[in-house]
Amino acid sequence: MFSASSVRPVDKTLAKFTLVALPFVAILLLLAAPWPLVRLTLMLAYSVALASCLYRLTPWFIARNPLSRFVQREQGHLKVCSLAGFFDFHGPWHYLPIERISSVHVWPHGIEIKAEEREYRLSVVGSADSLHAYMSSVLADALGAGVSFNMEPGSKY
After folding, report:
1. Is this prediction's pTM over 0.85?
2. Contact indicator for 3, 59 with CB cutoff of 8 Å
3. I need a labelling partner for 114 at 20 to 30 A (CA). Which of 13, 27, 42, 136 fits?
4. First-to-last CA distance in the chain?
5. Where are the membrane-spanning stretches (predicted)?
6. Is 85 contained in some domain?
7. H or E, element range at 80
8. Are residues 133 and 145 in the same domain?
9. Are 97 and 139 within one domain?
């Protein structure tokens, strides 16, 4: 059900940088030995960052963050937000009137919605095909009303 391509490239990069930082964190912990509170704070901060990065590489993260959690259709509005921060946190919600949406672009792990002279870029989990299918179903009636819908082959995220 889940493949390696389901993992977002940004999550892979963050995990690599966090693991590469391990020797530097170990040196800082040795230097901070005389100050137990500083040492404990460094260990906890690094542990949380590492756990978050590794969790985002698991199928559990992908299963807990379907697109329907970040793009929701309400009466006359599209309610959208993006993945952000540690673990499953997300950014602020934006309410877009559906009649004001001029275009929707879909990339692997990303959606860009243009509405009212503003652009909303969402970082989500999913392939371009699955994101395109979901957005087509959510905006089915708006597609007939003039909303352009593009699926780009290249990854912008």
Report:
1. no
2. no
3. 13
4. 23
5. 42-63
6. yes
7. strand 77-80
8. yes
9. yes
